[in-house]
Design brief:
The chain is mostly helical. The chain has one domain. The protein has 8 helices and no strands. Helix 1 crosses helix 3, helix 1 packs parallel to helix 7 and helix 5 packs across helix 7. The chain is globular and about 55 Å long.
Length: 234
Amino acid sequence: MSTTVGETGADFLAVNVGLGQNITCVIMFVLLLIALFIQLNTHRNTPWIYWLTVVLVSIVGTQITDLLTDGLNVSLYLSTSIFSIVLTLIFTIWYRIEHTLSIHEIVTRPRELFYWAAILCTFALGTAAGDLATEALGLGFIWGAIIFGILIGICFAAWRMGANAVLTFWVAYILTRPFGAALGDFLTQDKIYGGLGIGAMWTSILFLSIIGMLVFKAQLNTNINKNQPMQTNH
């Protein structure tokens, strides 16, 4: 949901609202910094803060790619390659310093900073790779979503059959980005371009509403578990 909102939300603010890419990017970047500051200084599991940060990261990551592609005329081939190299460097440095890439081991400030840097890069990479597959390579929105969805399914099957959990998680996580980009374009683009023509505004509202309900449920469960008395065995 958040990967698709990153695609549709960025388009809605920049095009439908008329803010333009530059202003949208600045506003979302400032909001992301605020949310990230709160997240980094929250010392317990707080779902709404975490997922707010994820949604903002998704929008900013999408905006970075759109700014390079539409504003600076950077080729999708080049931007996809650059973000792939940057993400590889982040993982390499992260592993060399911390000796783990597992999300279950993110218990220190440096590891969390590495995590959010990787997440931002995956959103930017996913937007570039998704647009490259669906537009530059001519797969179209439907086939782009289907192919990336199948690849995610393969990662899940590999994990179930005993493949390395950390590796399959990150590969699947990266693939959700172009999958969300392709799905977002399929829902929002006009029918003459191969989409459903729902529009960025309604798609964003729908997906944000679903995210809101899921996060509310998660936050409610977190509060219930926090307030339950600790059980002891006698």
